[in-house]
Write a structure and sequence with these properties.
The protein has about 130 residues and is of the alpha+beta class. It has helices at about 35-45, 55-60, 65-75, 95-120, and strands at about 5, 10, 20, 80-85, 90-95, 125-130. The protein has a domain at about 35-115: Orthogonal Bundle (Arc Repressor Mutant, subunit A), CATH 1.10.10.10. Helix content is about 40%, strand content about 20%. The strands form three sheets. It has a two-stranded antiparallel sheet. It has a two-stranded antiparallel ribbon with strand order 3-6. It has a two-stranded antiparallel sheet with strand order 4-5.
């Protein structure tokens, strides 16, 4: 059931700001351990630049099989990836459109990364994002 924490049956507010820790394994400059969808799409585009199979994308982007299929369907539908058959194996490769989006994503995150964190800084190591 959406909006319910099943462990203690508490309603979760969808409008509450998310607290984001400055620390965590994420490579993104303003995200904690939880990656946003654009970040994951960028990871998949990066991994797929030279052409890779589904398993390689899943492991390199650290996604479950279910998550991976959702992202691949979305990215194929929007022509960010192409699927080709090579030696009877399905290979996924970033398209020109996908690589253009990856480049724009890098430019945006590179130019606003530290400024974004400064805007939302509320403590030494905690940030708020709405």
């Amino acid at each position: 059931m959406p909006g319910v924490n099943h462990k203690n049956n508490e309603q979760l507010s969808s409008t509450a700001p998310q607290i984001i820790s400055e620390q965590g394994p994420s490579k993104s400059p303003f995200l904690s351990q939880r990656r946003d969808k654009l970040y994951i799409i960028a990871e998949i585009l990066e991994v797929s630049k030279g052409g890779v199979n589904k398993t390689q994308i899943m492991y390199r982007a650290n996604l479950s099989f279910t998550q991976l299929n959702g992202y691949l369907n979305f990215m194929l539908k929007n022509e960010l990836l192409e699927k080709v058959l090579l030696n009877d194996k399905e290979i996924y490769k970033s398209t020109k459109k996908g690589l253009d989006i990856l480049q724009h994503y890098r430019e945006i995150t590179g130019s606003i990364g530290s400024d974004y964190m400064d805007l939302y800084k509320i403590g030494k190591k905690t940030f708020v994002r709405k």
